[in-house]
Structures are given as structure tokens and as C-alpha cells.
Write a structure and sequence with these properties.
Mean pLDDT: 93
Oligomer: single chain
Structural class: mainly alpha
Distance between the termini: 46 Å
Number of helices: 12
CATH class of the domain at 3-85: Mainly Alpha
Radius of gyration: 24 Å
CATH architecture of the domain at 3-85: Orthogonal Bundle
Low-confidence stretches: none
Number of strands: 0
Strand content: under 5%
Helix content: over 70%
CATH superfamily of the domain at 3-85: MazG-like
Largest sheet: none
CATH topology of the domain at 3-85: Helix Hairpins
Shape: extended
């Protein structure tokens, strides 16, 4: 079976489910949006874990959601699947004039700058409008900074970015005893924003870095719990000194 035939059969399966399955009939774009987000995160997890059998499954689940959203929108008279496909096809051609047109580029940097310039001709009111508000805050900070950098609004030297990180930390230290929670929160946000910027200069995705550290913490803390269980103890029956001993031990094996 060709990819085209396979795709058409999948669309027909989803259409039938929409007509005949009580649960599928009840769904709306709004009711399944969080499930769509969850499927996206599962795709990311499979990539992180390099579990390619899982990635294949999760990409299928995500494709299901794309088709399901499109079908619901068609029923409500908003757009259809063909328009979704046409839209992305035309966008890719329009945003790659160095491939489908006569524009010449020297490197990736010029490609990205052209990309942002073209987006501003597509109805966007400003450069940062296309960064979704519902992104995780760390990811959104990186995307905002990255977009601004594409048009030249950026630090010239990495060392100056690090100086900004130190400056923001010092500002937090100055304000933390004030009791002004809103100001303290603002200063903490400035530190995270500056660190995100520094991550970009190190060519490190800050969201990935923090997710890696989160998982490392989970593994090491679970190591502590398991060691305590071997002694017949619950985590709530331990103390900091004992937990810290196993924490240091976990760093040698995990």
C-alpha cells in the first residue's frame, strides 16, 4: 500500500469513528486540546529516551489529533483537511525563496533572518506575535530571545550576557529582605530570563537542560528512597543527614 492510500484510509477510519462512536461524536477542538498537548509531550519523551518504537506510536497518536481537529473544524464550517495541507505547503514554499525562488543565501543565519522577514509580510503585527503564550515559560523566553536576535537585537559578546546574569542575581539579593513579594518574583524572573539568554549563547536549549536535571533529581531521590526501604524505613522516618549520605552515594552510581 502506498503512503497516499494509507493516509486516505486513515482519514476514512477517523471519519467513521466521528460518525459512529458516541465518544468521538461528542468531542470538540476545545475538549481534546489538552490531550493534543499531552501527545506532543509523549513524542518529546520518546525522542529523549531514543525509544523509536514508541516514537512511531506517539507520532501516530499526534497525527490522529491533527486529522481529528481538522475534521471537527470542517464540520463546523471553518476549514477542511485539504486547506490545512495547502496552507503548510504554500507556507514552506513561500518561506524558502532560496529553494523555490531566486534568493541567494550564504548560511543558516541568513535563512533564518529571511524566514522572520517573510513572516512579517504574512499578516503578523509584530515580530514576537508568533510565539505562543501557552508555551512553558522557559521555552517561551528562549523563543522570544531567539526571534529578537534574528533581526540584530542581541548581545555581541557572551561575557556580557554572563555579566547580566550576575547583575540580576545581585538585584535579587538586594531586594529579598524587603518582603515585597511581587518585586522579588519579578527579580527572580529576570534571573531566569538572563540565564535562558546565556544558555542560548552556549547553544544549549534551557528547557532540555532543566528537564535533564529534573530527571536526574528524580533518579537520585528515588535512590535515597530505595536505600531507606532496604533498611525498613520510610522517607518520612529519615533525616537530612541520612538522606544526604545516600544522595552523595547516588551521584557516584547515577
Amino acid at each position: 500500500m502506498t503512503e497516499e492510500q494509507n493516509f486516505k484510509e486513515l482519514v476514512e477510519v477517523i471519519k467513521r469513528l466521528r460518525k459512529e462512536c458516541p465518544w468521538d461524536r461528542e468531542q470538540t477542538n476545545d475538549s481534546i486540546k489538552m490531550a493534543t498537548l499531552e501527545e506532543t509531550y509523549e513524542v518529546i519523551e520518546a525522542i529523549d529516551e531514543k525509544q523509536y518504537d514508541e516514537l512511531k506510536k506517539e507520532l501516530g497518536d499526534l497525527l490522529l489529533h491533527i486529522l481529528f481537529h481538522s475534521l471537527i473544524a470542517q464540520e463546523e464550517g471553518h476549514f477542511n483537511l485539504n486547506e490545512v495541507i495547502d496552507g503548510i505547503k504554500e507556507k514552506l514554499i513561500r518561506r524558502h525563496p532560496h529553494i523555490f525562488g531566486d534568493v541567494e543565501v550564504k548560511d543558516t543565519k541568513e535563512v533564518l533572518k529571511n524566514w522572520e522577514s517573510i513572516k512579517l509580510t504574512e499578516g503578523r503585527e509584530n515580530l514576537l506575535q508568533g510565539v505562543p503564550k501557552n508555551l512553558p515559560a522557559l521555552t517561551r523566553a528562549e523563543r522570544l530571545q531567539d526571534k529578537a536576535s534574528k533581526v540584530g537585537f542581541d548581545w555581541e559578546h557572551k561575557k556580557d550576557v554572563w555579566k547580566k546574569v550576575i547583575e540580576e542575581i545581585e538585584e535579587l539579593q538586594e531586594i529579598e529582605d524587603s518582603g515585597d513579594k511581587k518585586k522579588i518574583e519579578e527579580e527572580m524572573g529576570d534571573i531566569l530570563f538572563a540565564l535562558t539568554n546565556y544558555s542560548r549563547f552556549l547553544h544549549i536549549n534551557p528547557e532540555n537542560a532543566l528537564r535533564f536535571t529534573n530527571e536526574k533529581f528524580v533518579k537520585r531521590f528515588t535512590y535515597i528512597e530505595n536505600k531507606l526501604k532496604e533498611e525498613g524505613k520510610k522517607i518520612t522516618e529519615s533525616n537530612l543527614a541520612e538522606m544526604d549520605k545516600y544522595w552523595e552515594e547516588s551521584k557516584k552510581v547515577l
